[in-house]
Amino acid sequence: MTTFDVLVEVSLRAGIADPQGATVERSLPRLGFAEVHGVRMGKAIRFTIDAPDEEAARMRVEELCRRFLTNPVLEDATVSVEPAREGAHR
Amino acid sequence: MTTRVGVVVFPGSNCEHDAAEAVSGLGGEAELLWHDEATLRGVDGVVLPGGFAHGDYLRTGAIARFSPVMGAVADFARSGGPVLGICNGFQILTEAGLLPGALQKNRGLKFLCTTVELRVETIASVLSSLATAGARLRVPINHFEGAYTCDPAALEELRAEDRVVLRYVDNPNGSLDDIAGVCSRARNVVGLMPHPERACDALLGSADGAVLVRSFLSACAAWAPPGPLSPASAARPRV
Asked: Is B195 a catalytic residue?
């Protein structure tokens, strides 16, 4: 078994209204950041997983996303998996 | 025999007593059911009340869906038993896949606590059978994540099958198609964001919710568990 670092980024699906992102974006010109566009809010979930290899880890994480970490009616997830750095998350 | 309605209590539920009070005020017997027990104790109907089950962590309803009681609720719903999800209870029913769609943050990003007008769209559901189609009811709302959303195919199906039970007269939260409440294909599972249980007495500002709670109680009274056992005895153990 190898331990992998996982980052799951949950974002609202294209076409789903994002009132938080829109509110943040509307406030930006007042702060002098009028050139910033397309703000979308999401969630980042980090954890480690033990698996025989990276492919197996990715498959388990994707299943976890489907069944729990996202609501497929509203959200998508992007998953990154890499071998754990020693001492991280412990 | 008195109609027994189970009100499920999750850690973070906060409207269970409102629901129980409405049920007993209208002649039913309410029984609080702790989420960690995988049994409904033979009740005649189930209410998932409002609140913030499991702190609404991750998403509203996401963790509540895995509470042990939810397996029993799903079995009960599949066998035709009346199930009502109010506010957070509605969110839990969508997460559990017992109702289609999902509830999103309100358009305008405000927590809404006010009284709204609802229109009864169909009386073919366990929540609306005693109401009048087209009737307008004044019922409170109290939510941050109440904007109903579903994909176009699901919306088409809800409309074609007449499963939108209640619509907002003046949409307060950005819900798709003004939807305030929907029912399952078999019409025995209903979820809604407004709180009819808090509008069952004129002293509370409106008694318009009472017809909905009475409808639900009458569905509970009429429902008999399926199977070989007599509904009167063995199938309804009193624990």
From this structure: yes
Spatial strand order of the sheet with B136-143 comes to: B29-34, B4-9, B45-48, B83-86, B189-192, B179-183, B164-168, B112-120, B136-143
Among B101, B107, B147, select the one facing A73 at the smallest CB separation.
B101
A25 three-class SS? helix
What whole-number distance in Å separates Cα of residue B23 and Cα of residue B4? 9
Mind listing the pLDDT tens digit for each residue in B199-215?
Answer: 999 999 999 999 999 99
CA dist list (Å): A89 to A5, B135, B210: 9, 57, 53
Smallest CA–CA distance from B147 into chain A, residue: A17
- Give the rounded percent of residues in chain B with a pLDDT score beyond 90: 91
Asked if A27 is an interface residue toward chain B (Cβ–Cβ < 8 A), one would say no
The verdict on A67 touching B (C-beta cutoff 8 Å) is no
- Shortest Cα distance from B19 to chain A (angstroms)? 28
pLDDT computed for residue A85 by the predictor:
84
Residues in chain A, total: 90
Which CATH number is B91's domain given?
A: 3.40.50.880
Chain B hits for A8, Cβ within 8 Å: none
Chain B residues touching residue A68 (CB < 8 angstroms): 58, 62, 66
* Residue B238's pLDDT band (cuts 50, 70, 90): very low
The chain-wide mean pLDDT, for chain B, equals: 94
Task: Decide which of 3.30.1280.10, 1.25.40.10, 3.40.50.300, 3.40.640.10 is the CATH code for A2-14+41-83.
Answer: 3.30.1280.10
- Identify whether B156 is a catalytic site residue: no
Selecting from A19, A68, A71 the residue whose C-beta is nearest the C-beta of B108 gives A19
Return the SS3 of A1: coil
Q: Where are the domains of chain A?
A: 2-14+41-83
* B102/A20 CB distance under 8 A: no
Asked if B17 is an active-site residue, the reply is: no
What is the pTM for the complete model shown?
0.90
- What residues have CB less than 8 Å from A90, skipping those under 6 apart? none
